[in-house]
Design a protein that fits this description.
3 domains; 487 residues; MetI-like fold; 2 strands; mainly alpha
Length: 487
């Protein structure tokens, strides 16, 4: 039974649990639902939860544990020195799974029987290669006899594991359903039980979000520590030169990339913040309902345009325009790829984020504050500056922070509009690059994962994390310092 079919059966059992649980509760009250402790639907949901929740818990645990158990069982097919290395173990297991999938295809097409796929040994790997090639499954030249034997064992272990998984999951589902039906009666507090389970689900969801953040930080931090053992961390943080060479002797200075990131983001925010904020003020306080119904959707269309389209716009239109009409006539540059090109386009991209969020926040300010200000004789502009904006400041700061984070993390527009040159320069009409672009370039292609030139991508990612954390701390400080309390 495949995983999809197993989930389908669980869905059927869950529906059956709802129907049977609800029916049993009503029957215990002899059809008078007023005698029930909870509403009939709660008894149905309790039956559905008990049919699904234990089975899903067993399934999740099994899906996590089975690959680790199989990998441990297959370690005996390979030399310990190779299998203990994490990167080599990942590559070996990828080959094993690929060959095992080829054996499954051969069996499904009738080229091999199940026993032959498991027990074939004669002729080394040649006979298996011939059979798999005959059904259109190509094996690379790097597949060794050890990989073939391990793939046959993997296929057998995976089949046995899937069978045991299906049996245990179905037993858990049926047992949970039987338990729910046994304890269901008119006095059973089904509502309390269901609400407790839902509270646990909500807590689990929040915990998953927190653990995901912790996992991201730990993974980046661990690889950054590995990088620091191969390359001096001082030279990385305070280095003024970026010259990545996968043959060795690289200079991996962070400062040129950090400067390019902050410079482009600064230009983008100069464009996005005033334009977006003034747009939000106009739409919320000055525009008529008819104008607002037309202008606001047109602005929000910008947020739905893919960033690669903005990159093409920067490459084909904005870059040549700035080069031909500003940079070359003033002698400041000769290239269409520049900080100004990328910054302007990213700024336009961020306008709807600031305008839409700020507009919603300004509209959320109580009307009583406006009426009180007008009653004291203030004009509309004075009310906006002295009442509405201070009241909406926390949300506006959040909108600006979101736009700043998007500007810092943008990649495609920078690649097409700013180039890939890592340099320290004040000229905004020169090509520069950002941290995110170099992360992509360092991890692209057939590279050695254990080299500092590759691991530096994680150090760059950790640097971005620190930058965004500082932005959040600064925004929190601004909000706490200038926020006004309204009752």
């Amino acid at each position: 039974m495949s995983l999809f079919l197993l989930l389908t059966v669980l869905g059927v059992l869950t529906i059956a649990g709802y129907v049977l649980g609800r029916g049993r509760a009503i029957a215990s009250a002899q059809g008078n639902t007023r005698d029930l402790h909870s509403l009939p639907n709660y008894y149905g949901w309790h039956g559905a939860i008990m049919a699904a929740l234990p089975a899903l818990a067993v399934l999740v645990i099994w899906l996590i544990a089975q690959p680790m158990v199989i990998e441990q069982r297959l370690s005996g097919f390979f030399p310990a020195a190779e299998f203990e290395n994490s990167s080599q173990r990942i590559l070996i297991m990828a080959d094993v799974r690929r060959v095992a999938e080829g054996l499954d295809i051969a069996v499904s097409r009738g080229a091999l029987s199940g026993d032959e796929a498991i027990d074939i040994r004669t002729g080394g790997d040649a006979s298996v290669r011939d059979v798999l090639a005959g059904v259109g499954v190509a094996l690379g030249s790097d597949v060794t006899p050890q990989v073939l034997e391990a793939s046959q064992a993997y296929r057998a272990l995976a089949g046995t594991g899937s069978l045991l998984r299906n049996i245990l999951v179905l037993i858990a589902s049926v047992a949970g359903l039987a338990y729910a039906l046994r304890i269901t009666n008119r006095a059973f507090r089904a509502r309390n039980r269901v609400e407790t389970v839902m509270l646990g689900v909500l807590m689990l969801a929040s915990t998953i979000a927190i653990l995901t953040t912790i996992g991201i930080v730990v993974s980046m931090l661990s690889e950054t520590i590995r990088f620091s053992s191969m390359y001096p961390l001082w030279d990385f943080v305070f280095g003024l030169t970026w010259q990545s060479n996968f043959q060795g002797n690289s200079q991996l200075g962070l400062l040129p990339l950090l400067w390019g990131t902050l410079y482009i983001s600064f230009v983008a925010m100069i464009v996005a913040v005033p334009t977006g904020l003034f747009t939000a003020i106009y739409l919320a306080e000055y525009a008529s309902p008819r104008v607002r119904s037309v202008v606001k959707p047109l602005i929000e269309i910008i947020a739905g345009i893919p960033t690669v389209v903005f990159g093409l716009f920067a490459l084909v239109t904005v870059g040549p325009f700035i080069r031909d009409w500003i940079a070359q006539p003033t002698g400041l540059g000769t290239s269409g790829s520049s900080v100004m090109t990328a910054g302007l386009v990213i700024g336009v991209l961020n306008i709807p984020f600031i305008s839409s969020l700020a507009d919603d926040i300004i509209n959320a300010v109580p009307q009583s504050l406006r009426d009180g200000s007008y009653g004291l004789g203030a004009t509309k502009s004075e009310t906006v500056r002295q009442v509405i904006l201070p009241a909406a400041l926390p949300g506006v700061v959040g909108a600006i922070l979101l736009a700043a984070s998007r500007a810092i993390g943008e990649t495609m527009i920078v690649v097409m509009g700013a180039g890939a040159a890592a340099r320290l320069d004040l000229n905004p009409f020169q090509a520069m690059t950002t941290i995110t672009v170099k992360i992509v370039s360092q991890l692209t292609g057939d590279t050695e994962f254990n080299s500092p030139e590759t691991l530096v991508a994680f150090a760059l990612g950790m640097s971005l994390f620190v930058i965004t954390l500082c932005l959040n701390i600064f925004a929190l400080w601004v909000v706490r310092k200038y926020r006004e309390q309204y009752e």
